[in-house]
Amino acid sequence: MTSSASNGPDFEQMWSALLPIGRSAASGGYFRQPWHGAEVELRAWFVEEADRRGLEVEHDAFGNMVAWWRPDGAAGPAVLTGSHLDSVLDGGAFDGPLGVVSALAAYDRLVESGVRPDRPLAIGVFAEEEGSRFGRACLGSRLAVGAASWEDARSLTDADGVRLGDVVEGGAPSSWLAGVGAYVELHVEQGRGLVDLDAAVGAASGIWPHGRWRFDFTGRADHAGAARMEDRADPMLSYAMTALAANKQARLAGQRATFGRVEVAPNGTNVVPSRVSAWLDARADSPSGMADLVAEIERQAAARAERDGTSLSVTAESVTGAVSFDPVLRGRVDGLLGGAVPVLPSIAGHDAGVLQEAGIPTAMLFVRNPTGVSHAPAESAGTDDCLAGVEALATALTGLLTGPGE
Amino acid sequence: MTSSASNGPDFEQMWSALLPIGRSAASGGYFRQPWHGAEVELRAWFVEEADRRGLEVEHDAFGNMVAWWRPDGAAGPAVLTGSHLDSVLDGGAFDGPLGVVSALAAYDRLVESGVRPDRPLAIGVFAEEEGSRFGRACLGSRLAVGAASWEDARSLTDADGVRLGDVVEGGAPSSWLAGVGAYVELHVEQGRGLVDLDAAVGAASGIWPHGRWRFDFTGRADHAGAARMEDRADPMLSYAMTALAANKQARLAGQRATFGRVEVAPNGTNVVPSRVSAWLDARADSPSGMADLVAEIERQAAARAERDGTSLSVTAESVTGAVSFDPVLRGRVDGLLGGAVPVLPSIAGHDAGVLQEAGIPTAMLFVRNPTGVSHAPAESAGTDDCLAGVEALATALTGLLTGPGE
Description:
Chain A is built from 12 helices and 17 strands. Chain A is an alpha+beta fold. At the A-B interface, strand 5, strand 10, helix 8, strand 11 and strand 12 of A face strand 5, strand 10, helix 8, strand 11 and strand 12 of B.
């Protein structure tokens, strides 16, 4: 439609190019841990796509990348869109990459439609959103906005003992975010809200408070045969009761509590463990609800540990309060999309929440997920719904990039 | 005392030489997995000690080693002594190596005392006794006697995916055992029996039946936040209840049941697991007691899995019936030791049990363990008690090697 169109591959071509990267043949799930194998390949792909479109790519000190579109006449605070490329272990294809591919595809629509933006567009890729390598969710965005301290984060280690400080340069919060006036992140929905509402695309009202707590149960290693049951201090029992208690409390309170990660030492069949470390993921519809939930789980864990002769130490690894996305920006996006888009809360955390809390007006769009499953191979989205997401994102960006600012 | 004395290092010197090998500075425990690092070093040490004494070392196809003393005049079935050099993960110093070092020290006493054996002495080191690498306890001895099939065992894999068939040659059961008429294994006690009896050395009556069962709970991976509690199929819950049930049933029955090893997939903090695999170690004072115990644990696990919407598969990885050590040999050893040695059961399994079940008359000596702890850094034995063990072993071997056979 215009000679300035970059004619990069379209949405479906880009999506097909990403599908094999980091995919396990065994499970069909994805292993895209940050700064490692598949994720490095995805980063190179992003830089290539940005280069192809003539977008200038900036890398910050925390591994975040941003591709800038600053055509003549564009000035003032930029509109940022994008997401992340890393996945949880054995995760789905959509969580993260859908937002990045949709951002590039939306950019292509803008160019093809001859949109002349009054302000810059930035397409961002945040690093370690899932926390699957260094254990802290939204680590790249938190470091970029200064919500996490580099002094603390630099010594985080992955499962192989590699420190974050050995992988990225680190330093002060990222200056590029100072040039951003609004963020719109498109994401696959991680539940069945849009399925129930029969809508391809939705918008987020905010994010439930959520956090991660590490429970270390320490007992005494012993022979699994020779040690009498009554002489043991077995931390596996303390942990097992805690996992059941967490599930029960979350059900009773209508909230969420999960123990999905466990490490046992020495983890031998014929050895009573010396230590069981387990990570609680808790979410609730209010900060007080979350605090009550975690306190009750911790109380029951401590009581059981005392009974087992084990000891318990609980460490809050990351705790995020409730996020309400900017009402003015949400209203503008809603208006741009014709007021037809349903609004629902996000129970998963996102870089969008980090940016909103750092004072950058933020909105999110969701694309329907027929299975409702996320962080797992069954995560999905239909092509038509994905293209509807690109369309909605392009429409919102067009409105935000042109005419008077907020 | 005699010019044929080999004058190798004495018990304490040998023991000191082994102490640093495979020891974790962090825990003080030992990591001596078979055919790997520390254990390879221990094997080389054994060959060196045998060479120093002029003993001929034979390696079989399964990684077992035997050092032969066949002086002039010695003929007929040999008396075998020894133990193993591998450890559980983060194990103690004594479980295994004490029997090997004591065997070499006892040999030295025999030589120094001018004993002229009528039959050969063999000092054996069995491979992968703990099952800490390939998951099968007493694997070396089981393969050697033909109680385990090489066809089945060759494809066992370790945590890194290395196959047993890539590590040892394998093949038919070992011919060297055909030349063995009796086995005496000295071992650190793995409970507090001798402490309570105030005795430095004891003898084993037999071994409790014991086994390992793998419990695979399969559910459905999902997002730890977005998936509603009631929509989940979380195998962690099924496992947690099973671990508690196993402990309770073992207490009620006066038996032993332990879940010491757990593997979670994908093991991410923000992911409901798709699978939890856990290994049950069960022991009982009778085969029917063990069968009842495991059946009840499996019944409760299956019921909970059904409630959780998960599925359960249970695999018996190794099951060993009750072993009674040869009464004639036990009687002879008791007589040689002056009838002063208390007799107690072993709840841990040993290569001695495998040889006994394969028709080789077998006896075991225990050395007092002040902590009663085993398979853990706190495992211990005092030097005086260790030397008393060497003395008892040398006395028993002298009697068994000289004069009329059984």
